[in-house]
Amino acid sequence: MSLVLDPAAQDLLFREARSANTFTDEPVTDEQVQAIYDLVKYGPTAFNQTPLRITLVRSPEARERLVAHMAEGNRPKTASAPLVAILSADNEFHEELPHLFPAAPQIKDIFFTERPVRENAAALNATLQAAYFIVGVRAAGLAAGPMTGFDFEGVRKEFLDDDHTPLMVVNIGRPGPDAWYPRSPRLEFDQVVTTI
């Protein structure tokens, strides 16, 4: 059985897509980011909790502050990308549940009154949304360079607050010269899938 999605789109989103390490200086516009969000906002989360929050780093001053928190090898990438997004989990997502999950607005008070429960749910579901965000960046014809090599607590204190947990930093733009490392191997179907 073949996939319904056009092979060119399969390549764009998956087979040919790579994590970029260099970028051109072509800007990433607010319109492009809006289009990406308008596509990926339909990705699934438990109870439609949608805890992902996106902080766009555009100003030179904010970029400099962020670069200082990146791991040494990631600093040049973040310094040169046209746009950088800090993806975080909103641990107070439950406040939006009466609006986001109108089929059962009481879910907020049934499952999410305790902070540790919210933090676990937010981390899992926002990470799922982050994966959709990366695919959305690719769908826009851009390259994403997602990274977790940074000082998480430093980024939280510098850019977020106690209610938000940073998940990853994503460099976004058109790939520049020598943007790709050689593709690493992947596991085969029978190494991953078990039928019981």
Write up what this structure looks like.
This protein has 196 residues and is an alpha+beta fold. 41% of the residues lie in helices and 15% in strands. The chain has nine helices and four strands; from the N terminus they run H-H-E-H-H-E-H-H-H-E-H-E-H. It has helices spanning 7-15, 30-40, 60-67, 75-80, 97-100, 107-111, 115-139, 152-159, 189-192; strands at 52-57, 83-90, 143-147, 164-173. The chain has a four-stranded antiparallel β-sheet with strand order 1-2-4-3. Helix 1 packs across helix 7 (115-139) and helix 2 (30-40) crosses helix 7.
Continuous helix count: 9
| Total number of strands | 4
Largest sheet: spatial strand order: 1-2-4-3
Poorly predicted spans: none
Summary of the model, kept short:
It is built from 9 helices and 4 strands, in the order ααβααβαααβαβα.
